[in-house]
Amino acid sequence: MLDVFGRRDYAIISELVEPGTRVLDLGCGEGELLAWLRDHKNVDGRGVELTGASVQKAIARGVSVYQGDLESGLDDYPDQAFDYVILSQTLQETRDPLRVLKGMLRIGRRGIVAFPNFAHWRVRVAHLMTGRAPQTELFPYDWYNSPNIHFLTVLDFEALLGKQNWRVERRIFLAGNREVTLLPNLMSEVAVFLFSGG
């Protein structure tokens, strides 16, 4: 498996994106993934990022990024403007995840979502043993300063996809540097889904 900027979710996403496609990365950070996709897959990439300092670093990489709130910014894009809309490690931080996911599928043919699995066994054990909001290597925040406002699991996301009649094209589960195939809701730390409208 590739290692893209030290992030396995980026490596999986980079494998899912076809060369020469149009890509929008929501919450793109400093634009590392978009720059990699541009350089290795010849994608026409755009990004949306809230933090000004990250936008400046993305632009310095030569990536087209604008500063804005991804939740309200999706309304500005026309239908089916992109082949892929990516949301990596950001869904759990959005105020209205369903609106974001619907917007992704309106403006893109396919969505790629990567998120931390809050049902991973270490999170469960931390919660059970301490009786407090879990803190692990993957979730190092205190409850009061965590950017995470929705604590979703693999099963939660799959249930939502089913309820919306969205089609799962690929699902990949990761624990550290390895892919998980057995009991992903319990064993995976990160889930990556490629999905499309019903």
Question: Main attributes?
Answer:
198 residues, alpha/beta, Rossmann fold, 8-stranded mixed sheet
Structure, explained:
The protein has 198 residues and is an alpha/beta fold. It has a single domain, classed as Vaccinia Virus protein VP39 (Rossmann fold, 3-Layer(aba) Sandwich). The protein has helices at residues 8-16, 32-41, 52-60, 70-73, 97-107, 121-130, 154-163, 184-187, and strands at 22-26, 44-49, 64-67, 82-88, 108-116, 167-175, 178-180, 190-196. The chain has an eight-stranded mixed beta sheet, with helices on both faces. It is globular, with a radius of gyration of 16 Å. The two termini are 30 Å apart.
Summarize the SSE layout with pairings.
Blueprint lengths: L7 H9 L5 E5 L5 H10 L2 E6 L2 H9 L3 E4 L2 H4 L8 E7 L8 H11 E9 L4 H10 L23 H10 L3 E9 L2 E3 L3 H4 L2 E7 L2
Parallel strand pairs: 1-2, 1-4, 2-3, 4-5
Antiparallel strand pairs: 5-8, 6-7, 6-8
In short:
The chain has 198 residues and is of the alpha/beta class. It is built from eight helices and eight strands; from the N terminus they run H-E-H-E-H-E-H-E-H-E-H-H-E-E-H-E. Helices cover 34% and strands 25% of the residues.
Proper CATH architecture: 3-Layer(aba) Sandwich
Q: What is the CATH homologous superfamily assignment? A: Vaccinia Virus protein VP39
- Number of helical elements: 8
Percent of residues in helices: 25-40%
Indicate the radius of gyration in whole angstroms. Answer: 16 Å
